[in-house]
Amino acid sequence: MKRILIIDDSATILLSMEGVLAKAGYAIDKASSGEQALTMLNDGLRPDLIITDLYMGAMTGTDLIRLARQVTGLRFTPMLMVTTESQQDKRIDAKTAGATGWLVKPVAPAALLQVVRQVLPER
Amino acid sequence: MTMFHPIKFCWNHPRATALAAAALVSGLGVWLHGILPPIAGWGLAMAEIGLGIGLARLLWPQTELVARLNQSEKTAQRIAAELAHYQTFTDILRRQGEMVTAITESAAITLIDGLRNVDAGIDRIVADCSGNLNQNAEEIEELSRLMILLMGSIQFQDITRQQIEQMARMSVMVDQHIALAHAALADLSRQFDTTSLADKLDQVFADYVMAAQRDSHRAARGESTDREGIGATVELF
């Protein structure tokens, strides 16, 4: 079973995405901040996909992706940004930091699943 | 702060001086009329009026100026008191916004939990009725699809939370501005040299994250709401 780490400071987003992705057959790990996610990754968690919010307090999703890319074994792991932010320059920042894709909230479940299947193909 | 008393002011200060001076001039005129020949009376009367007007011109403008300054001070005090209430008003708005966020978050979590339980229940029923699955396959598939759609739609709570938080930040910004205006009005010798509200509006605009927020801001300022530079809602790099 593919494992997905979701990071968001909103409890409802975490539950919503977990509900949609778990129903589609993915194992879900959750973190409510970039710092917590980074700790989980440094402690050995190796998800097949990371989905992160952009604004979550001190550490942004872009910061998290930049740091996560330096963790052993995560260099090629797909990392998606899911955010309400619509400005193009923020999107470019995320891309530069190593994000795989950008989704604007609210994300329709069908669109989310389509992207997840695209970046996380079944082997 | 010194309070201005209009009645006391009018009769104790320059206006009274003006009247006293006019009375003195008038008395002088009466005395002169008594001791000089009648032919000089007309000329003296004119001189008397001229002197009175001159004194009034000298003293009345000063009196009006002080009266108007005092009226301005009263108005400033009234505005300062109104602004203090304005801050209470925005504080109430923020607190009520926080309540809305808390209520919708709690409701959304309850809904998701409920949906997951219903979903798990459907899965159990499907497992128990494996013999009849073929008959109900389409219906079960439709229920499952609906369940995922409902779970996804709960994201509305995060969107509304962010919008309410943005409104709260804006009201804090206006409150701080009003507090400075309040202090300046309470003490008219104090400078009111802070960033203008127009500049703060620009700061607020820069803080938005949602296209919808930027659009409503532009609309409020009477600007075009054409969305510019917004990429696809889903983009893979």
Helix fraction of chain A by DSSP (H/I, runs of at least 4): 40-55%
Q: What proportion strand of chain B? A: under 5%
Determine the structural class of chain A based on helices, strands and strand pairing: alpha/beta
Gyration radius over CA of chain B: 38 Å
Overall number of domains of chain A = 1
**CATH C-level name of chain A:** Alpha Beta
Instruction: Find the count of extended strands of chain A (DSSP E, 2+ residues).
Output: 5
Order of helices and strands of chain B: HHHHHHHE
Note the main sheet of chain A: 5 strands, parallel
Coarse shape of chain A: globular
Q: Structural class, from secondary structure content of chain B?
A: mainly alpha
Shape descriptor of chain B: elongated
Pfam family, one (chain A): Response_reg
InterPro entries (chain A): Bact_response_regulator, CheY-like_superfamily, Sig_transdc_resp-reg_receiver
Keywords (chain A): Phosphoprotein
Modified residues (4-aspartylphosphate) (chain A): 53
What report would you give on this structure?
The complex is a heterodimer of chains A (123) and B (237). Chain A has helices spanning 11-23, 34-42, 61-68, 88-97, 109-119; strands at residues 3-7, 27-31, 49-52, 79-83, 101-104. By secondary structure, chain A is an alpha/beta fold. Chain A has a single domain, classed as Rossmann fold. In chain A, strands 2-1-3-4-5 form a five-stranded parallel sheet, with helices on both faces. In chain A, helix 1 (11-23) links the parallel strand 1 and strand 2. Chain A is globular. With 237 residues, chain B is mainly alpha-helical. Chain B has one domain. Chain B contains seven helices and one strand; from the N terminus they run αααααααβ. In chain B, helix 2 (14-35) runs antiparallel to helix 3 (41-128), helix 3 (41-128) runs antiparallel to helix 4 (133-153) and helix 3 packs antiparallel against helix 5. Chain B starts with 5 loop residues before the first helix and ends with a strand. The model of chain B is unreliable at 1-12 and 37-43 (pLDDT under 50). The A-B interface holds A 8, 10-13, 15-16, 19-20, 23-24, 54-55, 83-88, 91, 95, 99-109, 111-115, 118-119 and B 105, 108-109, 112-113, 115-116, 119, 144, 147-149, 151-159, 161-162, 209-211, 214, 229-231, 233-237. Strand 5 (101-104) of chain A pairs antiparallel with strand 1 of chain B, so a sheet runs across the interface.
